[in-house]
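STRUCTURE:
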């Protein structure tokens, strides 16, 4: 009897060793640097940049984890975790992402951490679920690279707000086109020597011409223009010196708001109801309907040094919590090649993937 039990155990062990990992479990674990995995990650980053209206665009830095689930009646869902890095392009900047350099550590880089579910169907990728947050690099890491480089300052610091307003006033005084209003202060740094304030901010056009009227008297035009400015206000004995450079983006039509008495084809669900209702979870074992991600955009806190990505995807519950333990990514067992000459040759790690820029 003992021999039979031992034989049965050996047969089961041989079957587990010879079968591909995760066969029959409804999912597979591709390598993080596989071509299709990278396509799903790039689709996730593209979606992220489409949703973010404040702060800066983000670029893919590393794929941390990936698991692909079969989805009935069609397609596959990539449950993917990625790291991103903030670029120098503002979220409203139409410059293609591939032309936006990543902000370097010496400039106090910001890293994003995202968990997403990306549906692949007929070769097309679409995002079903998104949850992100971002954090600036630590002061210690910045000091290691550049001991004298300034760190990020709070965007509502009195010096920062004064520098942004002074720079915008200087730009409007020299600009012959539309009068611009301050849209947001995106980032700022207090420079010790020479004593100055560096600030980056977004602006939006008004219905007034520069030099005529005030912000209070200017209304939003039918076609508005956004712009992005970088400025330095230097404190000197004789007063302040302002240097500002702005890039104005092409005009964008303003979406007309429906009137209360105007007929509509469909009544949208109130935002409050969407926030209160739990997000629908895509089914991985039965028939399912593609449900767009539910998002509630919340204003960022006043005291902040950067725009946290979590404010673009606030109000979204984790799909893992609703789908149970079966959906949670699990640690894969260590796999080694057969022993040759008394030593085992380890298989290269499939995840996390390569670092495209730098790790912070």
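SEQUENCE:
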């Amino acid at each position: 009897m003992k021999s039979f039990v031992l034989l049965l155990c050996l047969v089961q062990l041989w079957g587990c060793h010879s079968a591909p990992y995760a066969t029959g479990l409804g999912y597979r674990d591709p390598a993080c640097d596989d071509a299709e995995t990278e396509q799903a990650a790039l689709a996730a980053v593209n979606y992220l940049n489409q949703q973010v209206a404040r702060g800066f665009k983000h670029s893919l830095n590393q794929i941390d984890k990936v698991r692909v689930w079969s989805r009935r009646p069609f397609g596959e869902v990539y449950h993917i975790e990625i790291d991103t890095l903030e670029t120098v392009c503002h979220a409203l900047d139409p410059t293609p992402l591939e032309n936006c350099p990543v902000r370097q550590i010496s400039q106090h880089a910001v890293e994003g951490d995202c968990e997403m579910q990306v549906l692949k169907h007929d070769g097309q990728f679409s995002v079903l679920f998104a949850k992100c947050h971002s954090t600036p690099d630590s002061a210690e890491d910045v000091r290691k690279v550049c001991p004298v480089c300034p760190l990020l300052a709070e965007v509502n610091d009195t010096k920062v707000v004064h520098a942004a307003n002074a720079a915008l006033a200087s730009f409007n005084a020299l600009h012959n086109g539309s009068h611009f209003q301050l849209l947001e202060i995106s980032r700022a740094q207090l420079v010790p020597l020479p004593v100055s304030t560096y600030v980056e901010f977004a602006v939006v056009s008004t219905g007034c011409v520069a030099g005529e009227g005030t912000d209070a008297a200017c209304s939003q035009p039918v076609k508005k223009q956004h712009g992005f400015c970088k400025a330095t206000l230097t404190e000197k004995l004789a007063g302040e010196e302002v240097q500002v450079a702005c890039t104005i983006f092409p005009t964008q039509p303003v979406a007309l708001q429906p009137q209360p008495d105007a007929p509509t084809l469909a009544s949208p669900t109130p935002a409050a109801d969407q926030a209160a209702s739990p997000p629908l979870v895509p089914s991985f074992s039965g028939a399912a309907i593609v449900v767009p991600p539910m998002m509630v955009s919340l204003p960022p806190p006043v005291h902040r040094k950067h725009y946290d990505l979590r404010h673009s995807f606030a109000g979204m519950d984790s799909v893992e919590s609703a789908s149970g333990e079966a959906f949670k990514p699990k640690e894969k067992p260590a796999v080694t090649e057969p022993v040759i000459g008394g030593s085992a040759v380890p298989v290269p790690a499939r995840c996390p993937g390569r670092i495209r820029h730098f790790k912070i």
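REMARK: Confidence is low (pLDDT under 50) at residues 13-24, 256-297, 315-342.
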